[in-house]
């Protein structure tokens, strides 16, 4: 079955420290992978996406993610976290179902807290 | 680029009352439209999607329904709300083709008392 696992429910890092949020997926075809960020009470904003090509993708706000097919992972990284990065992060997988719609499967999210 | 509006932003309703949440999209035509519900600690659950006017697919059986009366309008409804309908409702759209990025609206916080 198709699924996305974000093993860390809550992570706390110090401001200026590096960050890695984990995402593992199970998908029967070539996956399209996404990371979204959600601030409290807000909608989801796309950080980055991977469809094909270079497995290291750059996103907004200094985030990057690396697709590792052998590990079925798409971990999100940032070299130096800022207090404004405190939010909830969602990994999602989707693909071409051969139709018009592109349903996404979301992980349950990782909440990031940033210590001053 | 597309912009998604959701109305209202917050809503408190008694059990058994009706519901109507509205989503409108600007900046694109013929979008695919989606309704998600987000409950604490449970991620996003896809409720409905639509690939065109009057075309609605339901992912989860429940007491909610959706309609798409116009190309860029998507409505989530209920005749009688349950306590379990409380949550954060998100509308999303993409341009279709099965591989496009989904963009999300600001959401509606629904509390059923």
Order of helices and strands of chain B: EEEEEEEEEEE
Provide mean pLDDT of chain B, rounded.
Answer: 91
Largest sheet of chain B: 7 strands, mixed
Oligomer description: heterodimer
Total strands of chain B: 11
Poorly predicted spans of chain A? none
Helical proportion of chain A?
under 10%
What does the largest sheet of chain A look like?
A: 6 strands, mixed
Outline of chain B: globular
Residue ranges of chain B: pLDDT <50 for 5 or more in a row? none
State which percent range the strand residues of chain B make up.
over 45%
Q: Mean pLDDT of chain A, as a whole number?
A: 90
Task: Report how far the terminal alpha carbons of chain A are from each other.
Answer: 41 Å
Range of strand content of chain A: over 45%
Report what the structure shows.
The complex is a heterodimer of chains A (116) and B (113). Chain A is mainly beta and 116 residues long. Chain A has strands at 3-5, 10-14, 19-21, 24-26, 32-38, 44-50, 56-58, 64-68, 73-78, 87-94, 105-106, 110-115. Chain A is built from no helices and twelve strands. Chain A is globular. Chain B is built from no helices and eleven strands. Chain B is globular. Chain B has strands at residues 3-7, 10-13, 19-26, 32-38, 44-52, 55-58, 64-70, 73-78, 87-94, 103-104, 108-112. The mean pLDDT of chain B is 91. Classes of the chains: A mainly beta (116), B mainly beta (113).
Topology (elements, then pairings):
The complex is a heterodimer of chains A (116) and B (113).
Chain A: E1 3-5, E2 10-14, E3 19-21, E4 24-26, E5 32-38, E6 44-50, E7 56-58, E8 64-68, E9 73-78, E10 87-94, E11 105-106, E12 110-115
Parallel strand pairs in A: 2-12
Antiparallel strand pairs in A: 1-4, 3-9, 5-6, 5-10, 7-8, 8-9, 10-11, 10-12
Chain B: E1 3-7, E2 10-13, E3 19-26, E4 32-38, E5 44-52, E6 55-58, E7 64-70, E8 73-78, E9 87-94, E10 103-104, E11 108-112
